[in-house]
Amino acid sequence: MATIELQKVEKKFGANHAVKPMDLTIADGEFVCLLGPSGCGKTTTLRMISGLEAVTAGKILLNGKNVTWSHPSERDIAFVFQFYALYPHLNVYDNIAFPLRAEGEKKEAVESRVNEVVDILRIEHLLKTKPGKLSGGDKQRVALARALVRRPAAFLMDEPLGALDAELREAMRAEIKQLHVAQNATTVYVTHDQVEAMALGDRIVVMSDAVVQQIGTPAEVYYDPANLFVANFIGSPGMNLIAGKLHDGRVQVAGGVDTIPVPVGYRNTLPAALNGAGDVTIGFRPESAILADDGDIAGEIYAVDMHGSYKLLHINIGNGATSGIVHVRADRMVTFPIGSAVRFSIDPKMMRFFDPQSKQAIQQEVTQ
Amino acid sequence: MTVSTQAQIQAAGQAQPQRKRRELSDRAIVNLFIWPTLILLIAWNFFPLIYSLFLSFTDYSAIANKPPQWVGFKNYADILTDTQMWKYFATTGRYALVTVGMQTILGFSLAVLVREKFRGSGLVTTLILIPMMLSPVVVGLFWKLMYNPSFGYFNFLLGFGNPVNAPDMLAGRFANVPVPNLALWAVALVDIWMWTPFVMLLVLSGLKAIPDYLYEAAAIDRASSWFQFWRITVPSVMPLLMIAILFRTIEAFKSFDLVMGMTGGGPGDQTELIAVNLYRQAFLGQWRTGRASALAYLILIIIIAISNLYIRYINKANED
After folding, report:
1. A91 vs B: CB within 8 A
2. Which of A206, A231, A256 is the last residue of a domain?
3. Residue that is last in its domain, among A213, A231, A249
């Protein structure tokens, strides 16, 4: 088991930064997801931890030991590749046994270890099969078995479920989670799928444009995004972001006459952060809006999506000047004719504010 | 309604002048393309094949004014009981083993070396490939010059200044003392020089097809370079390497032009490969067409047998 520490680690390809200097400390047994859109530097970060990619600057510590310039084989890590990277000419047994044989383990030891992981992943029936004949899910199970067999200090996984179809992905996600709980091994997991990151991670590192945007628990990045990027990226759909103006303790939604009282936690910090200018971005999740005839904000139904257990309303609140459409979650049993007028309020506890200039979240004061 | 529309369309179609141009049916066009090729194949391949099979069972000389005399399996029996012929087969076998073996080892090594990109690696690869693009007779002639004991480069590079104490490769002598098989190895060396690039080329394409991530996975799996080479590189390249070996083995058994250009089978019968002997029996002064045909069929059978072994191996490797 291991702790992983990244100190000012960065990667440049030519003049371009693939990863700007980042700090990250991963505790023993923790499951950390690197999440971001493609090209954000998450895979490069993972490959630097593994040693497959050299760092441009910074330090990587594994269990407190500096491994920045160690070969991947000296790091005691296992890597699960997106496209499995199974050895095509070897059958499943030999693929799983490969790391043990590479270390010169005795035949009996190899056999007992392989049988052990094969048992965990329930792939006994595949041992004689070559990877070319396996389904995507089975290939991934074999890749996981190969990673498990050596009992490495840490697991690094690069979008291991990215090549699977949606249904299988969900099943495999549960398997990986179960595996993590059972093995309690430090795991770094790269994904572009925020649902996957939320489901698996103890903590999520949100990255964009080679920069770490936020590091936090799934709840933190969901409810308290550090900036507009995270607010928009996490959640499906992302946080509603509408332009507003602060005056006299109320926020006015731009372009309209509707005003919202500033929630308690922001009464002092909001004016201080905005420094008198008054322009602010209001953020709220679709489920934080409460439809009510006397709601603070008025709008008109633009579209309605049926999601099974709830309806997602697309409400046009703007008259061109504001951000326009917001998403609001509503009871699946109520009918909303398109074009009809609605009003809603935002749960004050769930309202967030961002500085439109710096794009950063404005902090709440800690009450209690 | 539909009938009349169809009739109208047909009428309109016939009225168009370009409709007239296609007088040949599809079938006729197919025949037009296929038959000339088939006729050529029959005349140049199939007929000689069958005719020589017939001749191999006869006593016949192409220059004698006598029709072929049916002798049954006599030609085959004569060849198979002729110790001299067994010697030529043995010489050919040795030649094939040495040339193909060395070409495999050297070709593989060269491929591993030029796989890595370095400055001018494209140029180096092209230069290495030149020998196999030359005509074997040309290669034979200029190696004859290189091997010349008086003015050849070969002895010069080996540091022999005086032709009297130097090897005369193609004459099979060292300082005028006969060395057994020296001439055979001299010819084999040229064959190796000429065809190693072919093996290299096939192995190189195999090496380039191995994805990087397999080596990355192996590095993560803590495999040493040696372990990676034997467990990943070699098995991945094996199917292509086997094809290279198959081609080279067949060619080695048919080796003729290079040897003919350099030694003509000599000195004595040191370099008398089976194909050279076949040519000698069929044409050079002997004109034993019937017996030569029988020998040609024996060589064919041997080549098919060897090829079958390889092909079986390749198919087995590809099966999984």
Report:
1. yes
2. A231
3. A231
Q: Tell me if A58 sits within 8 A of A9, measured CB to CB.
A: yes
Model-level ipTM above the cut of 0.85: no
What is the tens place of the pLDDT at every residue in A273-294?
877 678 889 999 999 999 988 8
Reduce the secondary structure of A4-32 to three states and give it as a string. Answer: EEEEEEEEEECCEEEEEEEEEEECCCCEE
Mark whether A195 and A274 lie in a shared domain. no
**Side-chain-facing half-sphere of B123: CA atoms under 13 Å:** 3
- In this complex, which of A50, A73, A85 lies closest to B214 when CB atoms are compared? A85
CA distance A284 to chain B (A): 43
Domain span holding position A250: 238-354
pLDDT in tens, A330-353: 998 888 898 888 988 889 889 999
- Domain match, A222 and A242 both: no
B247-302 tens-digit pLDDT: 999 999 988 888 888 888 878 888 888 888 889 888 887 888 888 999 999 999 99
Place of tokens 């936020």: A214
The C-alpha angle with vertex A187 and arms to A70 and A17, in degrees rounded to 5, equals 60
- Domains contained in chain A, number: 2
Written as one letter, the residue type at B68 is P
| Of the candidates B125, B100, B144, B96, the residue with the CA atom closest to the CA atom of residue B243 | B100
For residue A3, give the 3-state DSSP assignment: coil
Degrees, nearest 5: CA angle B195-B201-B207: 140
- A248 Cβ neighbours under 8 A, 6+ residues apart: none
Question: Is A366 inside any structural domain?
Answer: no
pLDDT at residue B178, as a whole number:
84
Interfacial residues of B (vs A; Cβ cutoff 8 Å): 211, 213-214, 216-224, 227, 231-232, 235-236, 320
A265 shares its domain with A340: yes
Query: Residues A97, A118: contact at Cβ < 8 Å?
Result: no
d(CA B223, nearest CA chain A) in Å: 5
- Both A22 and A101 in one domain: the answer is yes
Q: How far, CA to CA in Å, does B295 sit from each of A103, B77, B139, B261, B292?
A: 55, 10, 27, 22, 5
A106 within a domain of the structure (yes/no): yes
- Report how far residue A296's alpha carbon sits from residue A259's, in angstroms, rounded to the nearest whole number: 6
Single-letter code of the amino acid located at A273: A
My answer on whether A344 and A316 are in the same domain is yes
DSSP codes joined into one string, A18-71 = EEEEEEEEE-TT-EEEEE-STTSSHHHHHHHHHTSS--SEEEEEETTEE-TT--
Angstrom distance (rounded) from CA A169 to CA A2: 27
- A:B CB pairs within 8 Å: 62
Nearest alpha carbon to residue A157 among A194, A116, A185, A126: A185
A171, A128: one domain: yes
